[in-house]
User: Fold this.
Amino acid sequence: MKPGMQLIDLADTPGEEPDFLAQLHGVCNTLGLEYASYASANPISGKIHAFTTYPDAWKDHYMAQSLHLVDPTLRAAARSIAPVDWRRLEHDNSFRDVFGPARDFNLPDTGLTIPVRGPMGDIGLFSVTATVAPDAWRRLTGPIMGQLQTAAVHLHDTVMHSDALTRILRQPHLSTREQEVLQWVAAGKSQQDIGDILSISSRTVEVHLRSAREKLCTLTTAQAVGRAVSLGLIQPR
Amino acid sequence: MILIVDALNRHRFEPLLDQMFQLRARVFRDRMGWDVTVKDGRESDLFDELDPAYVLALDDDYQVIGCARLLQTTGPHMLSDVFQAILDGEPPLRSATMWESTRFCVDREALAGGRGRHTVARTTTELMCGILEYAQAAGISDIITVIDPVMDRILHRSDNAPYDYVGRTADMGKVRALAALIDTSQERIDRVRAFAGIDGDIFAIEEEVANVIAPPIGLPGDAYLREYCHQQIASANSLRERNAAIALQKALSGLHSPARSFDA
Assistant:
């Protein structure tokens, strides 16, 4: 993160922006987590977009102190490819700068941050926390890591698409295979059927579907089909 | 044993990364004849500047005997940026739960005639398990990897056959390359471990390796001094302390030759 970058609370953005905060609450409720946050530096607009389910008192403190400039869950985690458990950041002096005060607000310092790298050098950081012992934290997050990864990329892509300029630069670029698979889904075929038709394994069909869903910024295959139709990438049946 | 080195801990393991870049030069330029850039006997490319994660295989003396490089497929990676020929001009797969593995190699010379845990086959399999287990713990379900037909045969032989391929086999200069898909399922990990007879935790304890690489007492290595100075500057409580820490760093950098930069 460049110093002096402007921090913008996306929850305060009026208008037709997607409800980012509701997405975060959804992740917390579904996966049994206490708080969730998302932040990203858009390389084009230069803004840091952020939103969080943390209490307002902490948000005010965080923004007043410009803690985003030193917060290692942003600065350090951005350079990892794997989820960064905050235990890895404890020895960082700035971790104490941020999470020392967090304790006064009764906020947990057990958490992890998932870094997302976008195609244009954009980086998103999705953090989740809960007040639990280290063992319980591992048991809680281990089985949901894949879901957290998917949620992180989905949030990041949605935020990046919400910036008009980025949206233009990031038209979904589906491969022929991905379009074929979506076209067969639209025709009502099952994953196994599609594999047989295209002479590829069912798992490869799944991989193409997952890739297509992410490029189209959708969570479900049904949404992906709808969006691909509306973008003229496949034909409706 | 396996050690994961990424941008967060690489300052503690620079000597190991240096060995890795030298191993890559020996393998990819000298042995396989790939068209790679080698400088001062060390092979690196622009993807090494994108903070990848390195999976290192170490012997009992903490020498690098194998390595691989991992990147997310949501951002820039080799299949999206340089292996376009394999994809026939098609856009690459992109998934939150898929990583790309590249530059997989083991040190055949060092392992030649080795026995027990130090054979080419054993090191190759352990490195594969390292990739799969690290990825699985990170919530990654699939690995896409650009490999040559030799590596493809090794994967088949070690009960670790790709479940599919993407694109086509393409000529990459003197060699042919293809993109293979490998899942990180527990079934596959169990199969590969059983094949090589690997039991228990394969991951090295970071602290132990770091202490051997850069002993905290005695003669500190460059990496240790750099980290120390960095910490002193970062933790300074006053301008005076900060200036003193910076002065110390300057004085030390005059005594020691500057560390080799990997970004060049």
About this structure: Chain A touches chain B through 42 residues (CB under 8 Å). The domain at 7-168 of chain A is CATH 3.30.450.80 (Beta-Lactamase).
